[in-house]
RNA sequence: GCCUGGGUGGUGGAAUAGGUAGACACAAGGGACUUAAAAUCCCUUGAUCCUUAGUGGUCGUGCGAGUUCGAUUCUCGCCCCAGGCACCA
């Protein structure tokens, strides 16, 4: 055995062996229990970052552990390969998104391989390949047949200069991120998935996801946003039309004194037409259309609006209510119209005060009167109904039901529920995505592409246009087609591509049979592997990706393609990888090498000013606080990098980067290496001891017991809690104990027990540091990978403590301790406790009121 | 504002069922080895008090109360930090 631990040689050696022996390849095996472990697949952005390293290390530990526990483990990896960054990079480098993407995939694949992750690489997939997205298109057609997808007009961020649609994050303070010009809201016809049909089902099942973090479940519930209320119809004066509002406060309908419509509401322009308000209203609507959504969401956003010139009638009071259009009314929620009750809603109150509108109290607290003129804020608490006709005197909570019933009986409205969740707009006016398989025919309208014509291949020879505009609409050979229904040559292909969240909503099913040609997936394979037993990824996907995936699974279920409704049985959201930021008042964020000196007195290398040590924040290129895993791999190797990620914090918490911490991890591996190196000669011919502890004595007996305790501890830490940090610290304790056993080298059983200890360490560490463990395993006289071994088990008889330390308390305060045999009875313990000198001092002759004995732990004497 | 986490030594963290607070590691200090350094190994390390230096006293898990023989752990009220949602009618 080499004196020195050299990770580079060991890691490349084992990675080669794993690859050539196809160690990680799996197939369905009905005789074995399956375990599907999935980590969120990466976007191929260039190279892997610490977030990936952490995510995939956690997953790999579980995958390897489960495999050693005898499960048939599916552990795949692939690429979420469509998306905008590829287009941006292509424009920046005058290249092509496909070239950029595939090059990145090659780089990142080799980086992941150098981390030693146990992926079945034969299942690798990239969502940008026609083999993948053809099934996405196929599914789109199935959904279209069932009416699960539809087309409607909706607003997008549009940059006139660049002639392109912008994602929300590409809009900076209302301006285009690339050209800096004003972004406006443009109405476009787009494709939608009817996710809102599943709102109720998605919500109900939120409570049937016990393996999910509560945080994620509540975020989803909140996003779905079910609220109970009523729809109420308000007839428009001098018209047959009516405005329908959604409200959760139908108890306050008697206090509704005006109406607010969202600026985008179709009635706004119709109602003001021909009135003297027309010019003002249309100016306001135009101004709102130009306003960026993020500006509108700011807390201090001033409520404003314009009178439309029209009135509607309160159906219960017959009161004439002016109709306004107001910036705080949202077209996307409810019906886009709000019945305004200034007395009992803060926004309506602010608005009424600003424009001098009437305030009528309809709910009052039981103990005092309210005066509309004197109020400084709306009264939103519960109370007693007033000014509400036959409902006066009623508790307002009761009135909620009563008024809803009344509205229903008189056809003035009805009780209803409303969801915040809106249908999923999947159209992207982008190039680098899966084409939507539809055809627009002048004669027949929208016609689906016939199944046998799939895939509609994204032309990869297209070049991106100035400003990121999609070239698809300009490519005649792509767009020109004949109508499959009427045969007209005057048909045009849909040029929108699908949202990339669609690809990530079913990739885990495709992994089950990634090369299957006869369908979206091999049903038998999916039936065997799915659902995913453990999913691991960043909390940033807590809402959209996970909700879309849950929705898509329901679609597959309704289409009879899968048997389950929920794709992920257990979910772990790992914390972020963070590091302190360094900045200079003049030069902004600094790289660590731009700060000279140490500790408190660092200076900027550019200007000499003192460096400000900022908060510990998520690693981000813009903050110059990233660590490239590549440098870690070169300096310490994959095993140390993995070990640090696991040891520094439990997985769900944020991990703070620490160079010293990495070194500590490296030191530990060296320490184990030296220990094994010291003992190999002595233990070479020894017969491993794994018997009853009673055959041993003294320190060796203690060490032997410690091994079994460690096996138990590590097993439960991984199995029950995923707390790898404490699992590692348990092994560290064992290694420390093994060093202490050095003096025992010459005792008869020492080499035999030590051999057992070393093998246990190799087995227990193997999920975390697999190359290191495999090398040790072979040094210890075995062959092949530890992954093929069974996870070690512990002997119950080795866990029995010979002697227990019993703590003695007086009035709950620790006063002494003594050792006792495990089978000492309560009375004897009591006696021994009282005999303690220190204890006697604190009892000090006072009468003993009570004595509490907790078996095997403590005696508490109450005086 | 609402929701979800979290607050423990100089630092990351541990304490899994209310029962020895601070495991394990980092950092720091001291020592050994060495011509020297690195590496390694050993010791000390929450604060504080003491004519008894101990198997010692007191305080100590964000703050204040409560339940209990006993609370980092449970209950109530508050403060602070992080993340998410947010004009949702």
What topology emerges from the helices and strands here?
Elements: H1 7-20, E1 34-39, H2 50-68, E2 72-74, H3 84-93, H4 97-114, H5 130-145, E3 149-159, E4 164-166, E5 171-172, E6 175-176, E7 183-193, H6 199-204, H7 214-224, E8 226-235, E9 242-247, E10 258-261, H8 266-272, H9 278-290, H10 293-296, E11 305-313, E12 320-326, E13 337-340, H11 346-355, E14 363-364, E15 384-385, H12 396-409, E16 413-419, E17 424-425, E18 427-428, E19 438-441, E20 445-448, H13 476-479, E21 480-481, E22 491-493, E23 497-498, H14 500-503, H15 507-510, H16 523-529, E24 532-538, H17 544-558, E25 568-574, E26 577-584, E27 588-590, E28 595-596, E29 603-604, E30 612-618, H18 629-635, H19 638-647, E31 655-656, H20 659-683, H21 698-721, H22 724-740, H23 750-765, H24 770-779, E32 803-810, E33 813-821, H25 826-835, H26 837-843, E34 850-854, E35 858-862
This protein binds one RNA strand of 89 nucleotides through α7, β9, β13, α11 and β31.
């Amino acid at each position: 055995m080499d004196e020195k631990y050299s990770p580079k040689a060991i890691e490349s050696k084992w990675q080669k062996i794993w690859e050539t022996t196809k160690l990680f390849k799996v197939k369905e095996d009905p005789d074995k229990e399956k375990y599907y472990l999935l980590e969120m697949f990466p976007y191929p952005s260039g190279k892997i970052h610490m977030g990936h390293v952490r995510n995939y290390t956690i997953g790999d530990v579980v995958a390897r552990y489960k495999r050693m526990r005898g499960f048939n483990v599916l552990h795949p990896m692939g690429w979420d390969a469509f998306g905008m960054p590829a287009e941006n990079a292509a424009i920046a480098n005058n290249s092509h998104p496909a070239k950029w993407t595939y090059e990145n995939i090659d780089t990142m694949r080799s980086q992941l391989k150098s981390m030693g992750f146990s992926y079945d690489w034969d299942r690798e997939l990239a969502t940008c390949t026609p083999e993948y997205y053809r099934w996405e298109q196929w599914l789109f057609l199935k959904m279209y047949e069932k009416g699960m997808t539809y087309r409607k007009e909706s607003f997008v961020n549009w940059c006139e200069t660049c002639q392109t649609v912008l994602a929300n994050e590409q809009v900076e303070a209302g301006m285009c991120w690339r050209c800096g010009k004003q972004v406006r809201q443009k109405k476009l016809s787009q494709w939608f998935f009817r996710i809102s049909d599943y709102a109720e089902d998605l919500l109900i099942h939120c409570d049937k996801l016990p393996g999910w973090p509560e945080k994620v479940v509540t975020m989803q519930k909140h996003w779905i946003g079910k609220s109970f209320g009523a729809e109420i119809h308000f007839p428009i004066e001098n018209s047959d039309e009516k405005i329908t509002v959604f409200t959760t406060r139908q108890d306050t309908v008697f206090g509704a004194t005006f109406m607010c419509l969202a600026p985008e509401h179709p009635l706004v322009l119709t109602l003001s037409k021909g009135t003297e308000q027309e010019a003002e209203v249309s100016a306001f609507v135009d101004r709102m259309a130009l306003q960026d959504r993020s500006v509108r969401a700011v807390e201090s956003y001033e409520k404003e609006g314009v009178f439309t010139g029209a009135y509607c009638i309160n159906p219960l009071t017959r009161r004439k209510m002016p109709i306004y259009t107001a910036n705080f009314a949202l077209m996307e929620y409810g019906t886009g119209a709000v019945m305004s009750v200034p007395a009992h809603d803060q926004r309506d109150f602010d608005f009424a005060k600003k424009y001098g509108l009437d305030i009528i109290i309809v709910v009052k607290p039981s103990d005092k009167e309210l005066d509309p003129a004197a109020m400084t804020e709306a009264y939103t608490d519960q109370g007693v109904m007033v000014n509400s006709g036959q409902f006066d005197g009623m508790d307002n909570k009761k009135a909620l039901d009563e008024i809803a019933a009344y509205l229903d009986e008189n056809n003035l409205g009805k009780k209803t529920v409303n969801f915040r969740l809106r249908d999923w707009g999947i159209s992207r006016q982008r190039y680098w995505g899966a084409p939507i398989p539809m055809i627009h025919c002048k004669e027949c309208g929208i016609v689906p592409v016939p199944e046998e014509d799939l895939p509609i291949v994204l032309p990869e020879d297209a070049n991106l246009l100035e400003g990121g505009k999609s070239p698809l609409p300009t490519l005649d050979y792509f767009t020109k087609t004949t109508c499959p229904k009427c045969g007209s040559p005057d048909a045009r292909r849909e040029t929108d591509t699908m949202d990339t969240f669609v690809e990530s909503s079913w990739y885990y099913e495709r992994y089950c049979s990634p090369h299957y040609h006869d369908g979206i997936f091999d049903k038998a394979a999916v039936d065997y592997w799915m659902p995913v037993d453990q999913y691991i990824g960043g909390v940033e996907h807590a809402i959209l990706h996970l909700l879309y995936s849950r929705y898509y699974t329901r679609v597959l279920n309704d289409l009879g393609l899968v048997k389950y409704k929920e794709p992920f049985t257990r979910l772990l959201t790992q914390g972020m990888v963070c590091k302190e930021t360094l900045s200079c008042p003049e030069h902004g964020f600094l790289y660590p090498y731009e700060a000279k000196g140490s500790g408190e007195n660092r200076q900027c290398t550019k200007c000499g000013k003192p460096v400000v040590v900022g908060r510990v924040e998520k690693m981000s290129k813009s903050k110059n606080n990233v660590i490239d895993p590549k440098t870690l791999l070169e300096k310490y190797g994959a095993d140390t990098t993995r070990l640090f990620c696991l040891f520094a914090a439990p997985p769900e918490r944020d991990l703070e980067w620490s160079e010293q911490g990495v070194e500590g991890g490296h030191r530990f591996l060296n320490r184990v290496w030296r220990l094994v190196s010291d003992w190999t000669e002595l233990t070479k011919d020894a017969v491993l001891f794994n018997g009853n502890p009673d055959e041993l004595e003294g320190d060796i007996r203690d060490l032997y017991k410690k091994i079994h305790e460690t096996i138990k501890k590590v097993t439960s830490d991984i199995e029950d809690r995923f707390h790898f940090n404490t699992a590692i610290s348990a092994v560290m304790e064992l290694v420390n104990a093994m060093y202490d056993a050095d003096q025992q080298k010459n005792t008869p059983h020492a080499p035999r027990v030590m051999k057992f200890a070393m093998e246990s360490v190799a087995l227990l560490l193997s999920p975390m540091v697999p190359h290191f463990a495999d090398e040790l395993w072979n040094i210890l006289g075995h062959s092949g990978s530890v992954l093929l071994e069974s996870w070690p088990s512990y002997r119950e008889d080795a866990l029995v403590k010979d002697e227990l330390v019993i703590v003695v308390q007086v009035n709950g305060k620790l006063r002494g301790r003594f050792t006792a045999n495990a089978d000492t009875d309560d009375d004897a313990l009591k006696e021994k406790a009282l005999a303690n000198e220190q204890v006697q001092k604190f009892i000090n002759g006072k009468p003993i009121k009570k004595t509490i004995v907790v078996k095997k732990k403590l005696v508490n004497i109450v005086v």
